[in-house]
Amino acid sequence: MSSDWQTxxxxxxxKSTAKDRKSTSAVNKAARSGNVAVDKKYGGxxxxxxxxxxxxxxxxxxxxxxxxxxxxxxFSKHLREARTAKxxxxxxxAQRINEKPQIIQEYETxxxxxxxxxxxxxxxxxxxxxxxxxxxxxxxxxxxxNKT
Length: 148
Description:
Layout lengths: L17 H4 L2 H10 L22 H7 L10 H14 L3 H7 L4 H9 L6 H11 L22
Helix pairs in contact: 5-6
């Protein structure tokens, strides 16, 4: 009967965790053995939501200083006035249009790059035209046209 039971000594060892498998020594060991495939992801590691609308070749032809044009001073002024008239901080407005407060700050100081999508979100949120010939005027309710 004693032959049915075989005793086996075990040494307590911990299971490998994800952290252990991702350590530099483990990755290097796997790379040396050839068990690792590395693929570079397109656009990986970035949190960029918008792209610049002008490429560098157009920018080079347009200006000598290689400087992007920012929003106009009129836009900045109308934006600041409309936001303060509503009693909102830059952070409040940024939350309402789902943008970072830094974007609002850049637009108000005139350093922001013009982005039609962001500008139209600002106009709808504030209910005021911020660009064009009607800048500073209230937006018309949707579906109603001004007959002049």
